[in-house]
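Q: Could you fold this chain for me?
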Amino acid sequence: MVSIQIWVTRFHRSPQLSPGAAEPEEMRASTDIERKPPGSSTMVTTPDYEEMSWELSVQIDQKSGDEAMKFKLRVKGDLHIGGLMLKLVEKIKAPQDWSDHALWWEQRKCWLLKTHWTLDKYGIQADADLRYTPQHKPLLVQLPNMKTILLTVSFSSVVFKTVADICRILNLRRSEELSLLKPPDDASNKKKKKDKNAREDIWDIDLLSGTSGAAAECLPNLPPAELAKIYQPLSLVDKANNFSGWLDSSRSLMEQDVQDEDKLLLRFKYHVFFDLNPKYDAVRITQLYEQARWNILLEEIDCTEEEMLMFASLQYHICKLTLSNEPLDHSKEPEIDEVEAALSNLEEDITDIPELADTLRLFRPKRLTLRPYKEYWFVFKDTTISYFKNKEASYGEPIEQFHLRGCEVVPDVNVTDKKFGIKLLLPVADGMNEIYIRCNNETQYAKWKAACILASKGKTMAYSSYKSEVRNIQSFLQMKSLAPPPGQATPDLDTMEMNAECFVSPRYAKKHKTKQLTTRILEAHQNIANLSLMEAKMRFIQAWQSLPEFGIKYYIVRFKGSKKDEILGISYNRMFRIDMSTGLPVTTWRFANIKQWNVNWEIRQVAIEFDQNVSIAFCCLSCDCKVVHEFIGGYIFLSTRSKDQNETLDEELKVIFEKQWIYLDNAVGHFYRTTFEIGSGGTLLLKTPKEMESSTAAKEAGADNRNIVDDGKSQKLTRDDIEMLKEQGLKGQEIIQQLIDNSSTFKDKTEYAQDKYIKKKKKKYENTVMILKPSCRILAMMYHGREPGKICHLRHDTLAQMLTLANIHAGSKVLVFETCSGLVLGAVMERMGGTLNTKTKDPSIDSEKSVLTAKDVQQNKADVEQQGSPEEQSREASSVANTSDDQEKEDREKRKEAKAQERKAKLEEKRKKMAAAAALLDGRNADGLVIAGRFHPCPVLLGLLKFLAPSRPFVVYSQHKEPLIECYTKLKEVGGTVSLRLTDTWLRHYQVMPNRTHPLLLMSGGGGYLLSGTTVAVDHSKPAGSLRAEEPAPKRLKLTNTEG
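A: Sure. Below is the predicted structure, expressed as structure tokens.
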């Protein structure tokens, strides 16, 4: 059944208007209906129609692959797109489903998806070449594991939504991290013949079941000969050309010249992998591992020989576990508990903050110099590193001190050569300063690097995560060690059944013999032989992330004022300028220091402004500037994601729903609008589409219901029989079928009555739950249906009108006064889309004092100081305690003092927030005002209107119209507002079904009343009554004798 909602708005006249007074022009304009005399309509003749119309050529693409057809239609400019599509379908006269077809304008490269727009509005004329083509077409997508799949995607949706649909099919979470990339031109031109033969290796999603499970399995490594054919040494320019093919996420595939069955690469575009959980991200972790593996094998990212052998040993271990016959059950993988991780990060022992002090070596790189490391005495305290000439000098002033908050920690390690270095990139105004610190052994390196990592996040070594960070670094060093653990026998080369050369890049395979390579891989494998498959993949990804060049994308640009081409590198948190001739970075800029960036689309130039008046501008040469623009904005947006407590769902939590307890553990990981059936014990069972189809369709139906008598004897099953069926474990559909079979009047009912009966019984006996994404509309409907008093009987359509009348939009500064359980404030925040600039009024404060001024803030501060110090109160309370229990008394005093200090800190924090709110209000430049509450709105409205800028809207909601009539009268007297309107709305639902369309009998009696208007600037030098005195008096009409 389709439900239509109709809103009708009634305008109320001002109570000041007398019965004989003229109605205001604004009210007359909204209520008058234009009427034409019966003979005033004009008819267009055939010659006139031909002069105003033209022939439009449209090509129709068949969905089944048949030959395209061309039609010419005579159209007019006022014909809307929907009417043109209807004409096409009527002219084709082909019995097929045309619902997926849409019009494509070839010359403009755009879809005509707004069916209510006319041809004139789109600018379509007789020379336009239109195609009536399907929106969903087949596309070849190469996954990160180099496997190509064939699936049907939307060519009319933006790429961001298309990627989200592909990830939904593959069961890939966090689709915002991926995008589509056009393959390099060289590969597509050289291997056309190969692609035709490779069609057999393509997975067809429509024919293949369980695609997500297949995508979660690793593919075997290629033989060395095939790997050598793919491998090509890449320079910085080659890498820049490879990364230039990212598609624009805000445009559709066809708008970027992608045709059906073209091949695109699905890759992780943004290298910030948020919330990797082995329990839910089996496919995501596998595809991440595959992308990292191919990056290593094809040397798209540089690594040392030691790191290459470490990656090879991990690949061998993963291949060995994948080829084993044991079935993989990813649901048994250990889940990462976000709450425990967050709590562990918050745990800090502030009484004892550890310090590190030891002899280390320091190097500060300079141009045209070697790397002489010098020994100093280093002290790590809080989040700073200080170094002195020696230990005895550590009691004085340090030679230099480094503040590590916001820095980057890069490892500089070679376990084989016993080289344990830490590279620190310290942020400064014009880039980053490099500092190299060399440790003496593994233990010292693990402690200092863990301290640097925590300090870069603003944390000290007192956090409980410091010890776990040290252990992780030590295990990572052990994994990088190529020597076998002590006590282990020399590995047997015959145990390795796979070719060792397929685990390293072709360049490294040429440097070593196969036997030597096998020995070194097996020795390194002994350090990781006990890892599970998922742990090995996670270790591989972590090692990939630790590489210096991880996640860097290169682009050829030309900076403003420069005459030569340069390389711009973009990472997840910084961008840097690279000299193309030497390949060395010249300047580094951090995203955290960006104040704003702009794009001049006419000259295709990107301009970025940083802190401390540092600005750059450049033009992109190897790609469109939109690619760089998306990378900067994408990384900044993705950095705002956090493991908030609101995003964490307790899977073991019992939820009461419709008087029944249910568990949400089986719902985690599924998409919204998924339907579940409540099983025994409150467990949720996923319902497949086949199960959701009605199996109780009636075969026989009567002509009408006139002979059916509702005497209560038509149903043979009693209540006890139904309860017995439930105890036997019958599902809801089976119980409904039993009720139909045992009903003596069901077959005599009409088809409509049978459907109504089945729907009623399904609601009673089928325990199904659909999980919806929460929104203010759903919350408003829920509150209005169950507890309307909590939201002052505010209906969802009235709430929508309030947001529209107040002109709520992103970036606006809105004043909100509401006592509707936060519903109005939540709706305003949802409409603003995250750009929050909202000030709310606490309803617990008296409505007469609705505005907090700076004077009130100072008074509150004085009141807090006059209350006396909390320390004195705690001493008075503790003096009564037993003197024999001194230790217990001291502990009690400490707890009381801590509570008092905490209470004082909270009061101070609240005072600062109130002062900040008062400072914002003093600007008197708010963009809107929304009032909805149970208080009388008149004093609140008059108190807050003065903080609105001129020409700004306001809206007041009340359940009753009398308070709003008083506000209307008061605003007319005071002045400063125009376009005052007092309206109410009523809502009625319509049932829309074949041969049964009618309004529902029950409807909402009223949705409250709204008073809206706009503020204007008032000249306060003139008295309020002078405005009315200056109005010209109405002219007297002279009576004339009309009789002849």
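A (continued): The CA atoms of residues 696 and 737 lie 6 Å apart.
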